[in-house]
Design goal:
- It comes from Podospora anserina (strain S / ATCC MYA-4624 / DSM 980 / FGSC 10383) (Pleurage anserina).
- Pfam families: Spermine_synth (PF01564).
- By secondary structure, the protein is an alpha/beta fold.
- The protein has 23 helices and eleven strands.
- Strands 7-6-5-8-9-11-10 form a seven-stranded mixed β-sheet, with helices on both faces. The chain has a four-stranded antiparallel β-sheet with strand order 1-2-3-4, sandwiched between helices.
- β5, α13 and β6 form a beta-alpha-beta unit.
């Protein structure tokens, strides 16, 4: 029986043994899948595979970190610049009272609300930063005009709350958004991966603040861009370059105000506007510069006939009608040597030079020395050392063959708070090493006798120089002391190295007075400080102030500086402090 033949199936070869027919796929003409689309899909997949390389990954991650670092660096620098702009109006210590708390609040608010900001705003949050930055000088200018109402207690908080806080908040929100795209190693625990962006960002901010802020303070005043308002404008420009947008058109009014009306800008036009505004209170600013110790200016009162040098919210001194010289407790003969730490307006070195005494002046701020020469008749025939007194004195004292002095005058600027390194046991011991065996040292100290620091400083001085007498500039105002618990005054301590003797003063003669009525009135010391004038805090150790324990004075700085701010506002009109 012949075998049964199979029925050919579609696509199979016939029984004749011919070659099998090639299969043809059936394509639905209504389907989107076509040979052309298939080819395009393959090309797209190839391009995607090519782009997802290690180089692309590293580039993407680098951009994330670079943008974050740029924003953190800008806000870190702005932190320092903000403080610098408040110091002429409020002083450095009141300005810093709320500063760190505002920074922390802004960082927390920005980091926790970044998703909300991105969802609510119709544009990227970073586009707000240039606009906020350019209006900071404007807000500071107008709030500064009402600083007497805001007071040193609340003025800095309100000012930075309306200027620095929004910048910090938006910056933190942007950095949080950027770092969401950061690819952290998988081997790290999840809680570390969650916390690392925030902790790392804040750590980078603090490091940038220390480095960039230090550079800003070190080089301030060297050009217009290195001044307070100049740096604010430069930072606004940096934000604009980082996040350009059409919103920048709204920055024009702020730029025009700062360029034409802001008296804080260091230009000739701004100075002219400043003096025009000060005419009503009878003052004129002769010159001004920003330097490493603060905003330094020379202010003249033509009506009252006196001149002062200002540094931030304090005075370095006034003309000879209002400044007393160091009292004479030895023979002021020529040929002797004097070492002066702290120049001020130069009244004391000028008197010593006039007596023919070879005088060395150590002053950290070159602008103070420049203004003393130009506006306060400081004689040029003295030795000027423009250097930090701590460093210079330590180096000179260590040199056993170095110069030693018959007189030392330690008269440093305090501004409402002690420059602590200049009143430590170690520094005073170096001054002791520079003083000849029969020499005399005069130490000026300005502080609030209603607080413990004057007692601590006095104890330290007497530990090094056992033979001392102290005198106040004026007696205690009991009414003010009772009402406000404030007793801010200058004190001068006269000391010798002779432990067996007593500090005595001879009455000045006509040669000592140098034909000066003020010297006749003030040269001989008055108002001797008694033990009961000092206040001791409960639980405060007597002891001395050492370089490794300066927190004993730091904790009292805020109270002292607030009292000093109030006193300065009675010495010169508010407009002088506010308009700069």
């Amino acid at each position: 029986m012949a075998p049964k033949q199979r029925k050919p199936t579609p696509g199979s070869s016939s029984a004749s043994g011919s070659a099998p027919a090639k299969a043809i796929p059936h394509i639905d003409p209504n389907s989107s899948f076509t040979p052309e689309s298939f080819k395009k899909e393959l090309e797209s997949l190839a391009q995607k595979a090519q782009s997802e390389t290690t180089l692309h990954y590293l580039t993407e991650q680098s951009i994330i970190y670079l943008k974050s670092a740029a924003l953190l660096s800008l806000i870190a620098l702005y932190s320092t610049v903000s403080q610098l702009n408040l110091s002429p109006t409020y002083g450095s210590i009141p300005s810093s009272k709320w500063h760190s708390k505002l920074i922390m609040a802004g960082c927390f608010a920005g980091w926790s609300t970044n998703l909300t900001l991105n969802r609510v705003l119709p544009f990227k949050p970073e586009k707000l930063l240039p606009l906020l930055a350019v209006y900071v000088p404007v807000v500071q200018f107008f709030l500064g005009k009402v600083s007497s109402t805001l007071t040193a207690q609340w003025g800095p908080l309100i000012t930075e709350g309306l200027t620095l806080l929004p910048l910090v908040t938006i910056s933190a929100a942007c950095v949080a958004t950027y770092l969401e795209g950061a690819d952290l190693p998988d081997f790290l625990p999840s809680w570390i991966r969650d916390a690392l962006p925030g902790l790392g960002g804040y750590g980078f901010y603090k490091l940038s603040e220390q480095i960039l802020g230090g550079l800003a303070e070190e080089h301030i005043g060297q050009s217009v861009l290195n001044t307070r308002v100049g740096m604010e404008l430069a930072l606004a420009g940096s934000y604009a370059a980082l996040a350009p947008s059409k919103l920048l058109v709204f920055a024009l009014p702020a730029l025009l105000h700062t360029a034409l009306l802001n008296t804080h800008l260091p230009t000739g036009n701004a100075l002219a506007n400043l003096n025009k505004g000060l005419e009503s209170v009878g003052y004129v600013v002769l010159d001004r510069k920003e330097s490493l110790t603060g905003y330094v200016s020379v202010v003249d009162s033509p009506k009252e006939g006196y001149r002062v040098m200002r540094c931030d919210h304090s005075l370095l001194g006034g003309d000879s009608r209002h400044v007393s010289d160091v009292a004479v407790c030895g023979s002021m003969d020529g040929g002797k040597l004097t070492f002066i730490s702290g120049l001020g307006i130069g009244t004391t070195p000028a008197a010593l030079v006039a007596h023919g005494i070879d005088t060395t002046v150590v002053e950290i701020d070159p602008v103070v020395h420049e203004f003393a020469l130009e506006y306060f008749q400081l004689p040029k025939n003295h030795t000027a050392v423009i250097e930090d007194a701590v460093t210079y004195t330590s180096r000179l004292a260590a040199d056993e063959k170095g110069q030693r002095f018959d007189y030392i005058v330690h008269d440093v600027f305090t501004g409402g708070a002690e420059p602590i390194p200049l009143f430590t046991l170690e520094f005073l011991q170096n001054l002791n090493a520079l003083l000849k065996p029969n020499g005399v040292i005069a130490i000026n100290y300005a502080g609030d006798f209603a607080l413990p620091p004057p007692r601590i400083v006095t104890n330290t001085i007497r530990f090094v120089f056992p033979a001392c007498r102290a005198f106040r500039e004026h007696p205690r105002d009991m009414e003010d002391f009772t009402k406000n618990q404030r007793d801010f005054t200058n004190m001068v301590m006269f000391c010798t190295k002779d432990t067996s003797g007593e500090v005595k003063f001879r009455h000045p003669n006509n040669r000592d007075l140098l034909n000066s009525p003020s010297r006749q009135a003030f040269l001989y010391p008055q108002h001797e400080v008694k033990e009961e004038d000092f206040v001791k805090a409960e639980g405060e150790a007597e002891g001395v102030l050492r370089a490794n324990a300066t927190e004993r004075l730091v904790k009292w700085h805020e109270s002292s500086a607030m009292g000093h701010w109030g006193i300065m506002r009675t010495v010169l009109p508010d407009a002088v402090w506010e308009e700069w």
